[in-house]
TrEMBL record:
Protein name: Deoxyuridine 5'-triphosphate nucleotidohydrolase
UniProt family annotation: Belongs to the dUTPase family.
InterPro entries xref list: dUTPase, dUTPase-like, dUTPase-like_sf, dUTPase_trimeric
E.C. code: 3.6.1.23
Species of the source: Streptomyces niveus
Required cofactor names: Mg(2+)
Annotated stretches, region: Disordered: 138-171
Function, in words: This enzyme is involved in nucleotide metabolism: it produces dUMP, the immediate precursor of thymidine nucleotides and it decreases the intracellular concentration of dUTP so that uracil cannot be incorporated into DNA.
Single GO term (MF): dUTP diphosphatase activity
């Protein structure tokens, strides 16, 4: 069963900008465009305006996510992914893009789609300080404690899925 959409007030700060839109009915993210053209050299970043600002309902936030096609084709990432738009923020939504391609300059034209906005309900928590936390199966294990992380020395990691080769190439 399809749930009813949540109503969100939106204001255009650029009169010509298309409103954020979902590409398909089941999509999680509504595409945001840039209102400014920009060229990004390899390694360069920019804060691009989207021409829209929101009044999200209390208890919601919007998250600015990268677009996978732009990442795969052009190497464009969001520096702060996902960017967090607070319910109380009334300013224009901005997108902090970076060109991670080592060679190619990326060109954004006005109204190119540069990111996608995912609106979600978020919990507000109250923190209760304690001397000891209750136990758990994971306990303090983190950062690769389940194995499957990269090896740098060429040794058989068994459960590996990546390895860093640049150190060995220099030897
Ligand atoms: O990709 C983003 C991320 C944030 N924002 C806006 C909305 C958000 O509510 C505000 C602040 O973002 P954040 O809290 O991530 O930044 P901060 O550096 O902690 O700033 P502040 O001290 O204003 O909270 O900036 C954007 O327009 N785009
Ligand atoms: Mg903040």
């Amino acid at each position: 069963m399809t749930r009813n959409p949540v109503d969100v007030l939106i204001r255009r700060t650029d009169p010509e900008v298309p409103l954020p839109s979902y590409g398909h009915p089941g999509d999680a993210g509504a595409d945001l465009v840039t209102t400014e053209a920009a060229d990004l050299a390899p390694g360069e970043r920019a804060v691009l305006p989207t021409g829209v600002s929101l009044a999200l309902p209390d208890g919601y936030a919007a998250f600015v996510h990268p677009r996978s096609g732009l990442a795969a084709r052009c190497g464009v990432a969001l520096v702060n992914a996902p960017g967090t738009v607070d319910a109380g923020y009334r300013g224009e939504i901005k997108v902090i893009v970076v060109n991670l391609d080592p060679r190619e300059t990326v060109r954004f034209e006005r109204f190119d789609r540069i990111a996608q906005l995912v609106v979600q309900q978020v919990e507000k928590v109250r923190f209760h300080e304690v001397a000891e936390l209750p136990g758990s199966a994971r306990a303090e294990g983190g950062f690769g404690s389940t194995g499957g992380h990269a090896a740098v020395d060429g040794s058989q990691g068994g459960n590996r899925y990546a390895s860093v080769v640049s150190d060995r190439e220099g030897q």
